[in-house]
Amino acid sequence: MKRTRAESMEENRARLLAAARRAFAEKGYAAASMDALTAEAGLTRGALYHNFGDKRGLFAAVVEQIDTEMAARAKASGAAAGEGFDALLSEGAAYIDMALDPEVQRIVLLDGPAVLGDPSGWPSQNSCLKVTREAVEGLMAEGVLKPVDAEAAARLISGAALNAAMWVAASAEPERVLPRAKEAFRALAEGLLVRR
């Protein structure tokens, strides 16, 4: 059965993303060669430019793909922890845990901000922020969290998890830093709880 042009383009895009993901994880953004990457994917530089514009555009697509997977993993961790505040804490802790994953470390937490700028402006981070804000608003409505500005609280919770993960990723001893980062994250988030 003959593939349509759209199917062919989607397959090329997926091949480029897979090759780029491997190259950026193994070599880092700066050292990843676009010629080697496109050759591994069995495509030309033209295909790369057509699908992503340039190396930075390809990198942004890889970061978005991984960051979206990270959000799904964090959400699954939250669902396993139950609901409400426990789920919110578990999602943040799971995000911080992912800083030990070499691919996440290199691509999202180290090279990502250096190449793409402030993560709070990334589309994938904005999606996470929206979900966190909705959770915070729900917990405030239930009287679980203090009635502070929901946007501010969501940004601080998300920012704390992201910065803790970046700290772990950049550390010379990430396994030693991880429990300290998670403990501090928990303490900060618990500061929003209404004490009865």
Can you describe what's shown?
This protein has two domains: 1-53, Orthogonal Bundle (Arc Repressor Mutant, subunit A), CATH 1.10.10; 63-191, Tetracycline Repressor, domain 2, CATH 1.10.357.10. By secondary structure, the chain is an all-alpha fold. It has helices spanning 5-27, 34-41, 45-52, 55-81, 84-97, 102-116, 123-141, 150-170, 174-190. The radius of gyration is 19 Å and the shape is elongated. The protein is built from nine helices and no strands. This is TetR/AcrR family transcriptional regulator. Keywords: DNA-binding. Residues 10-70 form the HTH tetR-type domain. GO terms for molecular function: DNA-binding transcription factor activity; transcription cis-regulatory region binding.
Profile the largest sheet: none
How many strand units?
0
CATH superfamily of the largest domain: Tetracycline Repressor, domain 2
Mean pLDDT: 93
Q: What is the gyration radius calculated from CA atoms?
A: 19 Å
CATH class of the largest domain: Mainly Alpha
> Which class do the helix and strand fractions yield?
mainly alpha
CATH architectural type of the largest domain:
Orthogonal Bundle
Element order: H for helix, E for strand? HHHHHHHHH
User: Ends: how far apart?
Assistant: 66 Å
**Residue fraction in strands:** under 5%
Q: Helical residue percent?
A: over 70%
Shape annotation:
elongated
Per DSSP, the total helix count is 9
**Poorly predicted regions:** none
Number of domains: 2
CATH topology of the largest domain, what is it called?
Tetracycline Repressor, domain 2
